[in-house]
């Protein structure tokens, strides 16, 4: 089976190639089989045999056929055991979209594997399609396997047969994960060229968020001269209104995404998606005023998520041209700079001091004192969360970023 393209790059095999892998079946067809250390795939009979599960020391059960029209067990069925239950209400039809459950199911399996002595049974009705698809997704997400490697690893222990729809969804996951790995390698190379540290150090115990006066002094010391636009991060630019309205310049720069931090009609840049209708540009606008009393922090996480998604967009053909983002306001010094500093703090694990140091060497920025206060509060919140994670067991430190964002923005 071909694993690489003509230039040596990995390519996800076709569905027919993957199905041929499943025809070679060295595995068994019992009620359950251990397909990885501590991970079992089984059918409804195995799931309902509590005596057998206890004899195998199964501590977690993932039911990929949850519901009264499927394998209707649920947490109450295991209430007299020490089993932790998770149910996914899925149907074994090619038209059913199982992919929304890939990450949550993988997280559940990972939790089982991270628990001392943890063992998990992943089952559906027959233990062939739904359950095996979720285990394959786990191996790809958390054990860094390609889809081919995951199929081979499982099929040598159990006969599996994901339906054609699930196989196509696993192929899309394979492509997405491969893109992310390739993008991470390219990003690391780009950061080295751009002078960005490739590794994030742990927050030092002695670090304390500076007060507003100290941050204002820090901003003015050692900053570069003001210009219309500057690249402040690989493929991210901060600019002013003149840059945002110069469509020819945007095309020559290769800008594909725009974040307008000054959308509206007063002290703003009144462009909008309509302004760029004849360009291949994705527009995102935030209506914010450059006054100290304005609460810009309400947009910190949504803007940071937008920037992050732009830089990790799996739809782009990585080897042709990367996405490029312009973050702007009127002057490109206060609103836009504040939102980008928040991104560096949330997604790049920087302190507010580190973020300011990084940006001011590349662009002159002057967030107003109200925005600085809001960045200080964000810095204190993130610092508290990082230190809390550092005191947790190693297996619990790597929390999902979206979960962290959603909790902090509530």
Helix count equals: 15
> What's the CATH superfamily of the largest domain, by name?
Protein tyrosine phosphatase superfamily
Rg over C-alpha atoms, rounded to the nearest angstrom: 25 Å
Topology order in helix (H) and strand (E) letters: HEEHHEEHEHHHHEEHHEEHEHHHH
* % residues in beta strands: 5-15%
Q: How many discrete structural domains?
A: 2
What's the count of strands?
A: 10
Q: Per CATH, which architecture of the largest domain?
A: Alpha-Beta Complex
Helix share, percent = 40-55%
CATH class of the largest domain: Alpha Beta
Q: Distance N terminus to C terminus?
A: 48 Å
Q: Going across the major beta sheet, what is the strand order?
A: 1-2-5-3-4
CATH overall fold name of the largest domain: Protein-Tyrosine Phosphatase, Chain A
User: Looking at the structure, what is the overall shape?
Assistant: elongated
Query: What class would the helix/strand composition place it in?
Result: alpha/beta
Describe the largest sheet. 5 strands, mixed
Ranges where pLDDT stays below 50 over 5 or more residues in a row are: 1-8, 198-202, 315-320, 393-410
Q: Give the mean pLDDT.
A: 85
Characterize this entry briefly.
It is built from 15 helices and 10 strands. With 410 residues, the chain is of the alpha/beta class. The protein folds into 2 domains: 15-183, Alpha-Beta Complex (Protein-Tyrosine Phosphatase, Chain A), CATH 3.90.190.10; 212-408, Protein tyrosine phosphatase superfamily (Protein-Tyrosine Phosphatase, Chain A, Alpha-Beta Complex), CATH 3.90.190.
